[in-house]
Write a structure and sequence with these properties.
The complex is a heterodimer. By secondary structure, chain A is mainly alpha-helical. Chain A folds into two domains: 30 residues; 215 residues, MetI-like fold (Orthogonal Bundle). Chain A has ten helices and no strands. Chain B is of the alpha/beta class. Chain B has two domains: 167 residues, P-loop containing nucleotide triphosphate hydrolases (Rossmann fold), CATH 3.40.50; 67 residues, no CATH class. Helix content of chain B is 34%, strand content 24%. Chain B is built from seven helices and ten strands. In chain B, strand 7, helix 5 and strand 8 form a beta-alpha-beta unit. In chain B, helix 2 crosses helix 3 and helix 2 packs parallel to helix 4. Chain B starts with a strand and ends in a 9-residue tail after the last helix. The chains are: A mainly alpha, B alpha/beta. Chains A and B meet through helix 7 and helix 8 of A and helix 2 of B. The complex binds adenosine-5'-triphosphate and magnesium ion. The site of adenosine-5'-triphosphate has 12 residues of chain B, from helix 1. The site of magnesium ion (MG) has 4 residues of chain B, from helix 1.
Chain lengths: 256, 254
């Protein structure tokens, strides 16, 4: 009973805080404390958001398509490699340290290289997103396989089950939690990766639009596209959470 | 009595340390036999060998007269915790052995659901393990073991995770089900009361390395509360001495 009002307050808090920041920002702009083209006021940004909505939407579609392709490929590849590494210890021992090291390579740094290799089409973008998402997914899956209850694994062995059966029945379900936390990260990486790769060239996408409006000093549109980019990420992360809860209906009964 | 499961001259070492030596045990058809011993003596190790999960250093395991040493997947083995899959419903969990045997999932689940009532789990088929009490989960695990194998069943401390009251209820229930279903059960416990209440025979594992230091027939008077009789207390005192006395050899079997 006492929990409800409190949770409403805790949800309201960030909204009020955000409104406060926006109000101050608007005030600063109206008072002429900063030059207009350097920092557009929130109302200007909002107007840009409305008038540019159709353009933003079509660019978002391109970005989302790239992100989905890169992410989808990386999930498929991570799944295959994770299973192989789980099955063959040697491959795990050889591959795991490498996977960790590769994760530290900044994607921004390799983006120009990819353009040189693959040109200005979809290919370098999908490759970049793939590189950004593959290792978080691989590491999430490998970690997830390790969470499988050793007792359950022994039980399956005592019942004479083979590897594929154990993989399907035990390792994959136990890896779900870890998979989804990896996916949460990868989803936002995929959007960021798409935008960064679009900076380097191309005919469509939020990153291409971003470069265009930056060059014409249309800072209100610049802010609008930044907002759209993070909104896309947020919606996707939320979507991952919804799917996570939907595919694990037993979760809600655990822990009490 | 016809022997279902038999172990002959089992020995096992871990990293050069002898854990079991010269173990000979038999499980007869339809009987419940207890293996009693202090913690760390090697009870689970012996069951892992009997179930084929581990190979003994020497000796052999016979199932219905056939040598099955080191072969897993033949006897039912209920391990120390219930090990239900948290993401499967109770009926699906219980049906697992049938599915592994190649039956269609739907038929297997239907078959398992039909048996839930016998195991005190009526109406639980669609529930997840997390929605059940500890005792109910234990019963589901037992049903799964029974569906795996009706010839011989190994149970490693099946009731030790339960509170005393639930455990007492489960023991009474188990005794009835074991009789009704004609189960041949080999059961590990370190609870002397449980051994006396459930079993037809008791093996005591003691010493270092672990040996079967004696085998006791167990026949308590039938009745509501056998644990309140004098025979029960006398047996209990004798067994306590045997289990604790570990090293020294008692004067033969009695
Ligand atoms: N895989 C293993 N490797 C090394 N030592 C082991 C292994 N498994 C068991 N042991 C050792 O063998 C001994 C017997 O272990 P076991 O699990 O059989 O005991 P237990 O009688 O079942 O005990 P509890 O009642 O506590 O379950 C212990 O000292 C343990 O440390
Ligand atoms: Mg044990």
């Amino acid at each position: 009973m006492t929990k409800k009002p409190r949770s409403i307050i805790s949800k309201l808090c960030p909204i009020v805080f955000l409104a406060l920041i926006l109000a101050v920002w608007e005030g600063v702009c109206r008072a002429g404390l900063v030059r207009e083209f350097m920092l557009p006021s929130p109302t200007k940004v909002f107007k840009a958001l409305i008038t540019e909505a159709p353009t933003l939407l079509s660019h978002s579609r391109v970005t989302l398509l790239e992100a989905a392709a890169g992410l989808g490929l990386s999930i498929a590849a991570a799944l295959v490699l994770a299973v192989l590494m789980d099955r063959f210890t040697l491959l795990y021992e050889a591959g795991y340290p490498l996977a960790v090291v590769t994760q530290t390579i900044p994607t921004v740094a390799i983006a120009p290289l990819l353009v040189l290799w693959f040109g200005y089409g979809m290919a370098p973008k999908i490759v970049l997103i793939f590189v950004a998402c593959f290792f978080p997914m691989l590491i999430a899956l490998l970690g997830g396989f390790k969470t499988a209850d050793p007792g359950v694994l022994r039980l399956y062995r005592s019942m004479g089950a083979g590897y594929l059966r154990v993989l399907w029945d035990v390792k994959l379900p136990y890896a779900l939690d870890s998979f989804f936390s990896g996916l949460r990260i990868s989803v936002s990486y995929s959007v960021i990766g798409a935008v960064i790769s679009e900076w380097l060239g191309g005919s469509g996408g939020l990153g291409v639009y971003m470069t265009r409006v930056r060059k014409s000093f249309a800072f209100d549109k610049m802010f609008a596209v930044i907002i759209v980019t993070s909104a896309v990420s947020l919606v996707l992360i939320k979507l991952v959470d919804v799917i996570h809860a939907a595919v694990m209906p037993w979760k809600k009964y655990e822990k009490n | 009595m016809e022997a279902v499961l038999k172990a002959e001259g089992i020995a096992k070492s871990y990293e050069g340390r002898r854990v079991l030596s010269d173990i000979n045990v038999t499980l007869g058809k339809g009987e419940t036999v207890c293996l009693l011993g202090v913690s760390g003596i090697g009870k689970t190790t012996l069951f892992n060998i009997l179930s084929g999960l581990e190979a003994p250093d020497s000796g052999r395991v016979l199932l219905g007269g056939e040598d099955v040493t080191g072969k897993s997947g033949l006897v039912g083995y209920m391990q120390q915790s219930d090990l239900l899959l948290p993401y499967r419903t109770i009926a699906e969990n219980a049906a697992l052995p049938l599915i592994l045997r190649g039956e269609k999932k739907r038929d297997a689940v239907k078959k398992a659901s039909a048996m839930l009532a016998d195991f005190g789990l009526e109406g639980c088929e669609k529930l997840y393990p997390a929605q059940l009490s500890g005792g109910m989960r234990q019963r589901a695990a037992l049903l799964r073991s029974c569906l795996f194998s009706s010839t011989a069943l190994l149970m490693d401390e099946p009731f030790s995770a339960l509170d005393a009251i639930t455990r007492a209820g489960m023991q009474k229930w188990f005794k009835r089900v074991a009789r009704e279903q004609g189960l041949s059960v080999f059961l590990i416990t370190h609870d002397i009361n449980e051994a006396l209440l459930l079993s037809d025979r008791i093996y005591i594992l003691a010493g270092s390395p672990g040996k079967i230091i004696c085998e006791l027939p167990n026949s308590l008077p039938e009745g509501e509360n056998p644990e309140l009789t004098r025979e029960f207390l006398e047996s209990k005192i004798k067994i306590t001495e045997l289990v604790a006395g570990g090293g020294q050899q008692p004067n033969g079997k009695d």
